[in-house]
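User: Run a structure prediction on this.
Assistant: Running it now.
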Amino acid sequence: MGYCKECGANLMGRIDKKFCSEGCRNAWHNRVSREENIEIKKINCILARNHKVLKGLVDNKICECSKERLAELGFNFSYFTSLEKKPSVEKCYFCYDFGYFYPKKGFICITRKN
């Protein structure tokens, strides 16, 4: 005789039974999945915010700004989706389809993939 992995109720029936009901089985798997994916959700949230900041600037026809201004808008420079080398600059950091690079010290140029 065993106990339900979710609610701890006594189990009756098959010897390899793990849950007392479908509800407990679903609740356990949903909880485990949610706990396993919490870090991924945090990172996706940061990437979405970075994308929103870059898109908002481009939509407002601002293609160059200071690093401090981007940080004030909530941009997190530690997270990006890809890194590319451009002919005129050392590195271009992309957050999905929007990217940024440093043409001169303290300033950032924003670009978009075609």
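Helices lie at 22-36, 38-59, 67-72.
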